[in-house]
Write a structure and sequence with these properties.
single chain; 259 residues; alpha/beta; five-stranded antiparallel beta sheet; 16 strands
Length: 259
């Protein structure tokens, strides 16, 4: 199910956006989901902490009093939130602030149904493309197809590729007679994966932060970075989140929700 969080301190704007979002979802059975609306950034954060779940898509007013939408976006990323962020802005000069939290983009107020629908079409279309992507791997048990969305990182040890998955399991290839660059080519051609060592590639979608110690993964692990690669890692991570829409979730229709 596509979980959408709407956050706006203006009651009329919040109700209008919620109605348009639910109208979109009801008109597109294949784009199923639910909408939850919040009057402040703190209310949204409290909901996430209480429920322990990230949303797939955040639509937030960029200039709310107190905790602004852009500050909220940064806070969500610090907490490990990987959902796409779309800001509601009243002037184009505010759009640069959106990229501090690696937002998908912005919607200029007042938002109409057609404009909102196009933005959601893009987000959902990209999600579906990512969900279908997989990599074939020859293992001792036979050929298997691993979902790219379900991979945390891939490393080569003793000529064997080890695919670390989000469910905690590790799939191992047969012994290879080629380089890591060649063996991992299907992954490296996908924008989610960043090669951060001679025999290691990380799925940027599952990176919740980074510092001098390395890339922080959403499962709590840290992948160390070679000396001098921190700047490039920051650039790639930021670039990825500016273009990536949603987390890996299944979809179904639910037109109810909180207003």
């Amino acid at each position: 199910m596509l979980r959408i969080a709407l956050c706006d301190d203006d009651p009329a704007q919040r109700l209008h956006m919620a109605q348009m979002l639910r109208k979109y979802l009801c008109r597109r059975p294949e784009a199923a989901g639910e909408v939850s609306a919040f009057a402040s950034g703190q209310e949204l954060l409290d909901s996430i902490e209480a429920g322990g779940k990230d949303y797939d898509l955040y639509i937030m007013d960029a200039l709310m009093p107190g905790l602004t939408g852009t500050d909220l976006g940064v806070r969500l990323r610090e907490l490990g939130g990987s959902g796409a962020i779309i800001y509601l802005v009243s002037a184009r000069e505010h759009t640069l602030e959106a990229y501090k939290s690696h937002a998908l983009g912005y919607l200029l107020k007042p938002v109409d149904q057609d404009t909102l629908s196009r933005k959601l079409d893009y987000a959902i279309g990209t999600l579906q493309q990512k969900l279908s992507a997989c990599v074939p791997v020859k293992t001792r048990g036979g050929m298997c197809c691993l979902s790219l969305a379900g991979l945390l990182y891939v490393e080569m040890r003793n000529r064997v590729l080890r695919y670390h998955r989000t469910d905690g399991s590790v799939a191992e290839s047969l012994t290879l007679r080629t380089s890591f660059q060649k063996a991992a080519e299907p992954l490296l051609e996908d924008g989610r994966f960043f090669r951060c060592g001679t025999s290691l590639a990380v799925n940027l979608h599952h990176v919740s932060g980074l510092d001098a110690d390395g890339l922080k993964l959403e499962n709590g692990d840290t992948v160390p970075l070679p000396r001098g690669m921190l700047g490039e890692a920051r650039r790639r991570w930021s670039s990825y989140w500016r273009g990536d829409p949603l987390a890996d979730k299944a979809l179904c229709v639910k037109c109810g929700g909180q207003t």
